[in-house]
Amino acid sequence: MNFDHLKKKLLYQSTHRGCKELDIILGSFAEKFLMNLESESIKQYEELLQVPDNDIYNWVIEKSIPPKRYDTKLLSSIISFNKKKYDQSL
User: What DSSP string describes 18-76?
Assistant: First the structure.
């Protein structure tokens, strides 16, 4: 699988999780940043998409501490992006 195809697959998975909130959170982030991410960040993102919805939701919305494996710069970027979007909507 080539790299661009993988990115497109991950973009689709980001917006079709079945959890409306995560579709918006991950989908918005992916639409804006995914195609420009480097290979290490793409790998982290791919692993993050394998995590159950509740866990991702808790890390991004509830600010619970993710396991060290997922506590990456990429997850911090997603959290920060979501916070900025929320702050702008107020």
Answer: S-HHHHHHHHHHHHHHGGG--HHHHHHHHHHTTS-HHHHHHHHTS-PPPPTTT-SHHHH
